[in-house]
Structures are given as C-alpha cells and as structure tokens.
Here is the input.
Amino acid sequence: MSIDVLQEKICKRKNPTVAGLDPKPEYIPPHILARCYAQYGKTPKAMAAAYEEFCKGLIDALAPIVPAVKPQAAYFEVLGHDGMAALENIVAYAKQKNLYVIMDCKRGDIGTTAEAYAAAYLGSVDIDGTSYAPYDADSVTVNGYLGTDGIKPFTQLCKQRDKSIFLLVKTSNKSSMEVQDLVAGDRLMYRVLADLAVRLSTDLIGQNGYSNVAAVIGATHPQVLETMRAKYPQMFFLVPGYGAQGGTAKDVQYAFDRLGRGAIVNASRSIMCAWQKAGTDGTDYGARAAEAAVKMKNDIGLYVRIL
Here is the structure.
C-alpha cells in the first residue's frame, strides 16, 4: 500500500516530516533569479526556470533527510504552461531521488471532471493507445466537501495504481472553524469528513494498519489531533501549520500513535527560506534548508520516538 511506503520511508530516516515546495519570487536566491532573467527576460518562463532550479536544489539537499516533499501546484499554475512544465519536472526529479511526492492541489469536483483531476495527478491519460502519466504523484490533497462524488474517482486510482489521498478534514487556517466546526446532527463537520474517509477505506488499509485514504489535520489544533488520533486509529495524518503558522513540536506530538507512527508534519517557509533567516546571499540555500530540516526533525524527536 502507498501509505505503507510513506511510513517505511519515515521509519528509515527516523523523520516524520515533509518539506513543502511552495516557491515565490521573494524566496528565490538572487543569483538564481539573475541567471534566469538574463536567459529568458523578466517573463513567466524565467520564473518557472528559477522555481525549477530552486526546488531541485532543495531536493538535492533534503533527500538524505526527509522522506517526502509536497509541491504546491498553485505556485506553478500561476505561471501558465511554463510553470506546469516545471512542476512536472520537479515531481519526476523528486521521485528519482526516492522521495514520496504529495501533490498539494486540493482538488474538489465531481463526475468526469474529478476523474480528469485524478488521472492528471495520480493516474494517466490515453492518447490514441499510448498511455501518458503527466505527474504520477504518490498522493494528492483532496477537498471532500462535495461528498463521495468528488472523492471516489481518486480512491479508485488508489486501488488501481496504489496511490493515497489526503482529505481536508480540519485545516490549519484560523477561519476553518467557520465551516469545519459547525455542528451537523450529533457531529462536528470535520468529524463528518473523517467518518466519510473511514467508509471509503474498507479495502485500502495497509500492513502498517493505516489507510490510503488519509486526512489533513492542522498542527494549530493540538487538541483536535489528540482526539482524532484516539477516535481514528487507522487514519494517517498530514499535519500542516508547523513553524511559520504557529504549530510547534509539542503540538504535533498528538498526531502520532504509541509507536511514533501514523503522521507526517509539513514545513515549507521555515525550510525554503532558511537562507534568508540566516542572513546569507542565498548561494548556500540548500545547506541552510538542510540545517532547518534537521532542526525540525530533532525538535519533533524530543516528543516523538519512532519505533
């Protein structure tokens, strides 16, 4: 099972963290920007090239440390076809480096549109008898608030191609309570989504006891993490909100089971922008990112022991 692969990579590195790849122009070291502008001008093509170089450099530095990366599709989509080509290259590069790739695209639609989204990021498209896998990520984030019509096209590919998905359940943003904490019958709305994930997980449980239909639960809600871990012992958690959004190592400990398994914690800016925090010129951005990733691993290790 795909989620078993992720858990095994976590155990091998003794590191339950994923590095978010969320590039923005202000995060890119000046020497990379200057080189790309000189080659392509101040164009989307130049920025896409800069994003690709930056992210590949991060992957090189982080591959020995983290088990996974999480590219955020939006930052590439905004650059048009050049950005999407860069994203495709970055995903392929990460997989070459034996990293688990979680595509953060938060897709949510129904019918054939949902099928197309699922095929784009987890599956393949047939072109006159030839199969082509555009991104072939290991996992995607999915907005399940349209119900099973928006989720099943993804779970079908979880079965057919051994992939996983992370449903948005209780997200890290402050306004999540406006919808996710509403009472629906005898449950909070986010519990409705978690229960839906369980219903779709019956034949997708891996050897480690966790399902390929996983959940996004923010580090900014430690009490929710604690109650959800107890309530849903077979649900794997992706935990965003660590670092820049305020989540701490002490907070995220509640996402894990007694063996230190069942969750992976995301950090983006604190790793990508470590060179800025160090006050350097950015030529050492990879080394600074590696230092930040090791620090995060060690900080979480004070509270979580992976057996």
Notes: The chain has a mean pLDDT of 96.
